[in-house]
Amino acid sequence: MIRLLSLLAAGLALGAAPALAAGPDLGQVQQSATNWPAIGMFLFFVLFTLGITYRAAKGSKSAADFYAAGGGISAGTNSLAIAGDYMSAASFLGISGLVYTSGFDGLIYSTGFLVGWPIVLFLIAERLRNLGKFTFADVASFRLDQTSIRIISATGTLVVVAFYLIAQMVGAGKLIQLLFGLPYLYAVVLVGALMIIYVAFGGMKATTWVQVIKACLLLGGATFMAGAVLYRYGFSPEKLFATAVQTHPKGDSIMAPGGLVTNPIDSISLGVGLMFGTAGLPHILMRFFTVSDAQAARKSVFYATGLIGYFYILTFIIGFGGIALLMSDPSYFKLGADGTTYDKIKDMIGGTNMVAVNLANAIGGPYFLGFISAVAFATILAVVAGLTLAGASAISHDLYAQVFARGRTTEKAEVNLSKASAVGIGIVAIVLGYIFENQNVAFMVGLAFSVAASCNFPVLAMSILWRGTTTWGALIGGLVGLVAAVTMVVLSDAVWVKTFGHPVALFPYANPALFSMPLAFVTIWVVSTIDRTRRGNRERAAFDAQYVRSETGIGAAEAHAH
Amino acid sequence: MSVVHTAGPPATSDARTLHGAGALDMPEPDHRLDRVSQHPIFQTLVQERNRYAWVLTGLMLFVYFGFIGLIAFDKALLATKVGGTASLGFYMGMFVIVFAFILTGIYVARANTRFDRLSADLARSLAK
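ok -> structure tokens follow
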């Protein structure tokens, strides 16, 4: 994850690259020439989604409408929205770029991102739908103390959202600078403003449909690209691989695991973070409350797993297509002093994150390039909107309604506060995006996954699955996991050495999840076991009621549709 | 299954009436819950489904961490050529992706038939 994002950031840091479609003679241009086909298509997307937001806003009145789209989303639609939340620009551009640079190693991420989904399905999805209403804190606090559990869940949510959002905002600014030729600040403000509009006016309904449309566009565009690549090689992957191996400077080694994960512990820790982080991402967990019942939740994960797996296979083909079709074409590279030589990896115009974008040009010309650029922008927009909604829900539904107002508030006041929070989060995201423009934000998505795996997931899983869990156990365990994950990342090479400039990293691995997640589970277990308070006993006794409802849905919140 | 008398901590029950998904959302009185948890169909459903889910979870963990373990400890094996250019690692990676999807399919197929039927039987039996 960290390495992937550092590739993304490194690529994007080369924002001073010439126009994508232009020849190499442009040299150092601060920002690319304005890309009109891309801007036109993107404007069309924005107008269309704003129309959807307007319609959603007219139909959204209750809290259930705002947080859970009235519970009326079908399994098929929800699976596209889940897949959309997951297929971020980092997945699309980052993984195809990673495949382009190192071949096989890209698969490590693709598989890691995917294998969390079966776990979500088998252990979490149906129970979540049966127990909860709007946020995963509803579920974790079902039989535990509302105040404590909502505080730890909301904190975990906001930390995940903050790091994820900063990384997306900075990536968005750089990407838009590169793709559309807009200045960084404009790009960040534009993304922030649009996500505020989607979330504050359209709530979950608009956020879901924006995500669905983007997922269809992205899957369609990627399918076309991968299909066109395979078409050139007579639909024989073997021919594609053979050409790629001949063209790539690393030759045959791109078909084998390389230097991406050198340390065994680190690769396993990465796997743990990717796998279980998925089951703790708040904006993903929220999607299980938008469907009518546990059956629909189950089906949406099944379809989503298929869509996401298919998408990662496409990015792999696109990465190899980039090797085979772009590497021997000098027009996609900045040429050296003699005008003919270039480094096939370092000199790619726009950096290796632009592989998919450059390949779009090679395959479909400037209009398809414009289409893919617009899709990449739409992708970022949809993902930040989902994150903002998750953050706003944690503030209004968990912190305000249950902790500060202690349930003595009206639905209307809560929804209004949620809308205000969305505006606040949007403004904070714009400011942070601006502040972090030239910082290394590569570690932040990795940190978000680690926190999700070490705080949100253990609290949620233990409260649903283990009778013995008490409030003290979940609270302290979640806190320990959160602090451990953040501390380990801060002491690791990415922050301690690269950002703070200390000579040696105090934590030797890039990914903390292998240590911080078990620590959280063990802490929950130990503290719950020694918790002999009367409240603890009551909570253990209340497990049976929760168990019946989580397994059968008897008494579960009905579909909220009017 | 022990007998449940409290549906939730009374101290926080006022917080649950308006918004929370707390236990007070549950319309059933306590004796009904007890009837459910003691019901033979409920016990069959829960036992079967939990066993199924944990076995599939175990399989997924085994396959994925097996793959990651090979990347970590035996890179040479994964570099072995299978057929022409494609390596064993490539096929294994693709297998992990397809396997994850198939596992979810197996679970859903089972849940749609067996578990949903058990749930429906349980609901019918409780309605009597």
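Chain A touches chain B through 84 residues (CB under 8 Å).
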